[in-house]
Amino acid sequence: MSSPNAVTLTGVRAGYGATPVLSEANLTLASGECLAVTGPNGGGKSTLLGLLVGLVRPFAGTVEIHGRSPRRARGRIGYLPQAARLDLEFPMTVRDLTAMGRIRSTWLPQRLRAADRAAVTELLRWVGLAELAARPVAALSTGQRRRVLLARALATEPDLLVLDEPEAGIDAESAERLQKLLSSLIGSVTVVVASHDIEGTASLATCGVTVDHGLTPWSGDGQQDDSPRRAGGPPSNTGDHLPEHASPIGGSM
Ligand SMILES: Nc1ncnc2c1ncn2[C@@H]1O[C@H](COP(=O)(O)OP(=O)(O)OP(=O)(O)O)[C@@H](O)[C@H]1O
């Protein structure tokens, strides 16, 4: 049975080797919310995101994604890692990298179904890369790489989308496009986005947290929120962030 919360962190301590980065981190996030994760360099934003996707294991405490461990939930988590942590110089096309998101198992060879191929085509159209589907990923610009990785993350049809600095290294136009793409997802997918673009991210987010070796929640108006549990659910779609394209999540996919 799934938990009412998309994300629950309870008493989490985490770090690397013996060095703690986060202490006593508590957080709950309802389905369909968009959490902005901000904070200084080295404060622990990527560590928090790593906990959510199961790449970082807590020293103590628990992390649950819809009531399950991140490892058990990972088939339903889409993850966009920080650009600097990725080597995309391998020989793979835009279409193939996106299609990796449709593969449910990493060890069984699988043939993509026609529906999977159609979903990949639709996602590439949605992120504006349909024309570049056959191009090697290594030959893409930084902004195009961020978009194809977003397409791959979305190809998993995630319940939870975890994005680490999606706007890093991309120009203003691409950043605006990315914001529109993300805003069209809010309400249908739970989104956690770490960013140094506080203004842009806060305008999308339904709640936020500053990470500086601990978590300090802040509310939508930028004020500190004393409760680690967010009141209220996701906003109704008021049309404030109208997307250029309808979200490809759900519907025919
Ligand atoms: N794989 C690792 N091994 C050891 N230490 C690490 C590792 N990854 C991160 N750290 C350390 O953990 C701390 C938190 O790093 P983290 O990447 O989570 O911060 P951040 O808030 O995402 O920073 P930035 O804004 O610079 O991306 C830093 O002191 C960093 O040096």
TrEMBL record:
GO terms for molecular function: ATP binding; ATP hydrolysis activity. InterPro entries: AAA+_ATPase, ABC_transporter-like_ATP-bd, Metal_Ion_Import_ABC, P-loop_NTPase. SMART domains: AAA. Residues 215-253 are annotated as: Disordered. The keyword Nucleotidyltransferase does not apply. The keyword Cytoplasm does not apply. PROSITE patterns: ABC_TRANSPORTER_2. Residues 7-238 form the ABC transporter domain. Keywords: ATP-binding, Nucleotide-binding, Transport. Belongs to the ABC transporter superfamily. This is Zinc transport system ATP-binding protein. It comes from Actinopolyspora alba.
